[in-house]
Specification:
single chain, alpha+beta, Jelly Rolls, 3 domains, 9-stranded mixed β-sheet, 8-stranded mixed β-sheet, 27 strands, globular
């Protein structure tokens, strides 16, 4: 429950130096005047500290993930997840985008020992969920279990995450800005801030809105006891959170693993010819999980082709500056400015385009929704669901040119791209063939 108590419980498993340090710490907390044995110390901690913590939680039952009653649902009622967010009492960020997750308004989430806010942008409703959490300097979040796979992107700061099962073996790994990792369903997890002088912010993404339609009770997700210890062994490896490695499959640049160190510097990408802009792409897969996504990188002074797909693709910017334009067919356009730590989600079947107006390559991470929620390859029609440059609204190009000029740059878009629908971007002769999005079951590609 509490980081200090948790340390006391496992005193007998630590080295002697750790025992002495933890004992000294708890002696001060408990107001003891002489040393005691670790087992006695743990019991005293439970007797003296936990009742106060429990009493504090009981005074805030309305926002508890463990005590919120089952959500009333029916065929003609709203989403159970939305009702749960209301009961939770945390801020909920809505609209089309969050320009800077590092500055998003949060509120204390005492039960989790952090500050937090839920995210419910257009394009997410009923499909995918997200929460931004801030861990204070030197602090640790409450150890919890969660019944679904969950991806974590580090918005800011440095920290350590520890995961374990009832079998007891713990896996700990360090993370920093723009790290990405996946925590398997049902395992214990605890996030800690590795620095004492600044907070750390992380964003968690999961499929809870869909799952709550079948199981509309928060306790099902946070108090369920199902656990598969094998999920912490990445493809049989003894180290579950070693850095991801390249694997077969996908579009030729699939990286598989539970941990990606820094997406702003991740390489090993392949050309992304069919989406334009002279870009590159890398596919991301997590072992034993349906979660995943990809990261696209495209040069300064260029932009991608307009396209559309199903809902729930969460886009976070690891680096670069630019904007995206989103619109339902035939209707008004929404402009989304972005830079590092921006987040947005294109609504269902809305066209959208991404524009890099910075002086460096731009990157966007796209976390995919559950595959049942996005149209299959047979429903993706290139001439209807992707807009070639010669067919785009002239306003698109005019706005791009104006935004580039504001920053003292220039467009690097080849003139031929605007006249030839089959225009081929130039790549280095030694590069791989690259991604195929038509005929590859990847119609969710942002």
């Amino acid at each position: 429950m509490d980081g200090i108590i948790g340390k006391a419980i496992f005193l007998d498993e630590t080295k002697n130096d750790d025992v002495r340090q933890a004992t000294i710490l708890l002696i001060g907390v408990l107001g003891l005047t002489e040393p005691v044995q670790p087992s006695k110390l743990a019991q005293l901690a439970f007797n003296r500290i936990i009742p106060g913590i429990v009493g504090k939680l009981e005074g805030n039952m309305a926002g508890s993930i463990y005590s919120t009653p089952r959500i009333g649902v029916g065929r003609h009622t709203g989403y159970a997840y939305d009702k749960w967010l209301d009961a939770l009492g945390l801020p909920v960020h809505t609209g089309y985008f969050i320009e800077d997750l590092r500055k998003a308004e949060l509120a204390p989430w005492e039960e989790m020992q952090c500050n937090a806010a839920m995210i419910q942008l257009e394009g997410m409703h009923g499909v995918t969920g997200a929460c931004v959490m801030e861990i204070p300097g030197g602090g640790s979040m409450t150890p919890t279990r969660f019944a679904l796979d969950e991806t974590i992107f580090v918005v800011a700061g440095h920290g350590i995450t520890t995961v374990w099962t009832d079998e007891g073996k713990k896996h700990s790994f360090e993370w920093g800005p723009r790290s990405l990792f996946c925590i398997p369903q049902g395992v214990y997890r605890q996030h800690s801030n590795a620095r004492g002088d600044q907070p750390a912010r992380i964003v968690a993404n999961n499929y809870m809105p869909l799952a709550m339609e079948m199981f509309p009770d928060p306790k099902f997700f946070y108090a369920d006891t199902y656990m598969d210890p094998g999920l912490l062994a990445a493809d049989g490896s003894s180290e579950a959170y070693s850095v991801a490695t390249r694997s077969e499959g996908g579009r030729g640049a699939t990286w598989r693993g539970n941990f990606f160190t820094d997406l702003a510097g991740w390489d090993g990408l392949v050309p992304h010819r069919q989406r334009g802009g002279g870009g590159h792409v890398v596919d991301i897969e997590f072992p034993n999980s349906v979660m995943g996504g990809h990261m696209s990188v495209f040069p300064s002074g260029t932009y991608k082709k307009g396209h559309r797909h199903g809902p729930g693709v969460v886009i976070i910017i690891p680096s670069g500056e630019g904007f995206s334009v989103m619109w339902p067919d035939g209707e008004d356009k929404v402009v989304v400015p972005w830079h590092e730590a921006s987040m947005f989600v294109p609504p269902n079947r809305w066209f959208h385009q991404h524009f890099n107006v910075s002086q460096v390559p731009a990157r966007y991470l796209a976390l995919s929704p559950l595959k049942q929620t996005r149209p299959g390859n047979e429903n993706f029609v290139p001439r209807e669901d992707q807009i070639e440059y010669p067919d785009e609204d002239p306003w698109i190009r005019d706005m791009f040119m104006a935004e580039v000029a504001k920053r003292g740059g220039e467009s690097l878009m080849p003139p031929g791209a605007y006249t030839d629908r089959e225009f081929n971007w130039e790549y280095s002769s030694n590069e791989e063939a690259g991604a195929e999005i038509f005929g590859a079951h990847l119609s969710e590609e942002p």
